[in-house]
Amino acid sequence: MIKILTYINTAALVVAVGGGTLAFFNRGKITESIMTEVQKQLPSLVKGAMPSIPKMPSATGPVNPFAK
Fold first, then answer.
1. How far apart are CA 52 and CA 41, in angstroms?
2. pTM of whole model > 0.70?
């Protein structure tokens, strides 16, 4: 039973080290693909976050409503 667990742990270690090494050597490509996706979505996110522009009133009155 201990041999089986040792083999499983060894295989998990090899997979983890191999995946980490692959990610390390391809980090430039991974970063570039993430940045490309963010740049595609950024305009819509900014547009959605902007408030609507208020309309200008058609007529204005005096500053002091009691002024004649």
1. 20
2. no
